[in-house]
Design a protein that fits this description.
- It is a single chain.
- A 7-stranded mixed beta sheet has the order 9-8-7-10-11-13-12, with helices on both faces.
- The two termini are 46 Å apart.
- The chain has 3 domains: 63 residues, Spermidine synthase, tetramerisation domain (Spermidine Synthase, Chain: A, domain 2, Roll); 222 residues, Rossmann fold (3-Layer(aba) Sandwich), CATH 3.40.50; 119 residues, no CATH class.
- The radius of gyration is 25 Å and the shape is globular.
- By secondary structure, it is an alpha+beta fold.
């Protein structure tokens, strides 16, 4: 533990990490150490501070303080709950301190809350040293499950209206909660069609690469995604984010559904105005949250095109002109062109094509089969490969390694990347793609 005594014999806790926030540290003066033990999973420290009340620390990282915890807890709970029309069954992964539970049970429509916490010691310590936060753990609506969040999700499909991930930073027992496989499991566990997840989204000043990764994952899996930023004084840099995702493509995540209820929840931080304001992001953050990298690693990454009889094939511009792309267009890199007379992968099996176009509405373009998608192409030096960018409006579905289909929304540009050799019955196992936002 990072504890030290200054020249005046005052005791301090110092939060310092060269891995997560290099070159800076945050300190709180200690009045008394209340608890300090190693659980099965992590180091747990609770101390009474001079200015922030009791403080919970896991693996040297501050999780909450009695003085400012309500900001995080209320936003984690009500950003998703107030975006859902009828949130009855709620799953909280992590959150053993009980703060999110305390807020969730305030919502009048909530009927059942499952708390899935991997470390039972966190719950026990919080009950003893953070009683106001943990007071609703014994609520009759609450069921406690001591389990790994990923393993618990694997056992449940179409079960929860809202899933809230109240995790620590991406190390130790919480590391798996920041991976695509975990987001995929959450999606599967949500009830259709309005299911919502809300996940701890790290700090905009320290974690932009991770935020970009998580937003890219989220946009691959969910049609509606938004990033909120919250003031949290005792977290690094004083802010923390939330990633909110909905299965409903028409969800208005940035607006509370019930504005009257939003202002009647007996909260200290959350209001309808704060809900809206939290999604107003600085320009540098907004750019990261709305875009993903357009870089292609190198020309040796072979890319093949699945057979699309609906598409017209013409010569076209280079991929470098991606900024000029508009909806219902497609372009291909012609920089390595050596042969423009090859066929378009006709040896790909038709059942693969039908699986790829499972939800493609051909009838809407019966009179003009190329109206929804226009393509341009050229072949690279390897005649078996092509590079293609496709754009569409909610009518073409793409596949990635973990989720069978992803609807393409009207403001997306999708770069499909396929290995020709894998275009057989199991082609989808090696399929990868990137999404760009205009």
């Amino acid at each position: 533990m990072t504890l030290y005594t200054d020249e005046n014999n005052n005791k301090w806790f110092r939060e310092k990490s060269s891995e997560f926030w290099p070159g800076q540290e945050f300190s709180i003066e200690i009045e008394e150490i209340l608890y300090q033990q190693r659980s099965k999973y992590q180091d747990i420290l609770v101390f009474k501070s001079k200015t922030y009340g009791n403080v919970l620390v896991l693996d040297n990282c501050i999780q909450c303080t009695e003085r400012d915890e309500f900001a995080y807890q209320e936003m984690a709970a009500f950003l998703p709950l107030l975006a859902h029309p009828n949130p009855k069954r709620i799953l909280i992964i992590g959150g053993g301190d009980g703060g999110v539970i305390r807020e969730v049970v305030k919502h009048p429509q909530v009927e059942e809350v499952i708390l899935c916490e991997i470390d039972e010691d966190v719950i026990d310590v919080s009950k003893k040293y953070l009683p106001d936060m943990a007071k609703e753990i014994v609520n009759s609506k609450v069921t406690i499950v001591i389990s790994d969040g990923c393993e618990y999700l694997k056992q449940h499909t179409d079960k929860f209206d809202v899933i809230i991930t109240d995790s620590s930073d991406p190390n130790g027992p919480a590391e798996s909660l920041f991976e695509e496989s975990f987001y995929s499991l959450m999606k599967t566990a949500l009830k259709r069609p309005y299911g919502i997840i809300c996940c701890q989204g790290e700090c905009i000043w320290l974690d932009l690469p991770l935020i970009k990764k998580l937003m890219t994952i989220s946009r691959h899996l969910f049609p509606s995604v938004a990033y909120a930023n919250v003031s949290t004084p005792t977290y690094p840099c004083g802010t923390l984010g939330f990633i909110v995702c909905s299965l409903n493509e028409n969800a208005k995540l940035t607006e509370p559904i019930n504005k009257k209820l939003a202002d009647e929840l007996n909260t200290k931080y959350y209001t309808a105005d704060i809900h809206r304001a939290s999604f107003a992001l600085p320009a540098f953050v907004r750019h990261v949250c709305q875009t993903s990298s357009i870089a292609v690693e190198d020309s040796t990454k072979e890319i093949a095109l699945i057979h699309f009889p609906e598409l017209s094939i013409n010569s076209g511009d280079k991929i470098s002109k991606i900024s000029s792309l508009t909806k219902a267009s497609a372009q291909v890199d012609t920089s390595s062109s050596s042969n423009t007379n090859n066929s378009v992968g006709n040896d790909v099996e038709l059942d693969n094509q039908s699986r790829f176009l499972d939800n493609f509405d051909k009838s809407s373009n019966a009179n003009n089969p190329t109206s929804s998608l226009q393509t341009t192409k050229s072949f690279m030096s390897n005649s078996l490969t092509q590079r293609l960018i496709l754009t569409s409006k909610c009518d073409l579905f793409f596949c990635n390694s973990s989720i069978p289909y992803h609807p393409v929304s009207e403001d997306e540009l999708v770069l499909t990347t396929l290995h020709k050799q894998s275009c057989q019955k199991r082609w989808f196992m090696k399929y990868s793609w990137l999404t760009f936002y205009k």
